[in-house]
Structure formats: structure tokens, C-alpha cells
Design brief:
0% strand, 65 residues, elongated
Length: 65
């Protein structure tokens, strides 16, 4: 099983590509990585409770408004 993936990876790494194709693939990979990281940050923000301080301070009560 692992040998099969290793062979496919070796074949892929031996293939010659142009500079334009390399830059396209690299750009897609970077944008994909940024997208995945942003997705998980947003997901974490939705799941985490709101930790803002709601008590105390001038202007937080009805009398301060």
C-alpha cells in the first residue's frame, strides 16, 4: 500500500513541468493552505464562547448612556 503511493510520488516528481505550471501549482497550494487555515479559525471562533468582559466600566450601564 505505502509502496504504491511512493511509486506514484516518484513518478510525479520525475515529470518535467514548465516554470509557469510550477508557479500555478505553487500558488494554488498556498491559497488552498490559507483557505484551510482561515476556515479552521472561523470554525474555532464559532465554537468558542464569547470572552468579552460585559461588566463594569463607565458607559456600560443604562445610566452611562
Amino acid at each position: 500500500m505505502v509502496g504504491q503511493y511512493k511509486e506514484e510520488l516518484d513518478v510525479m516528481m520525475q515529470r518535467e513541468i514548465s516554470r509557469a505550471d510550477f508557479l500555478k501549482f505553487t500558488g494554488i497550494a498556498i491559497l488552498g493552505l490559507i483557505g484551510v487555515v482561515g476556515f479552521f479559525k472561523n470554525l474555532n471562533g464559532l465554537m468558542a464562547p464569547d470572552k468579552t468582559d460585559r461588566s463594569g466600566g463607565y458607559g456600560r450601564s443604562v445610566y452611562g448612556r
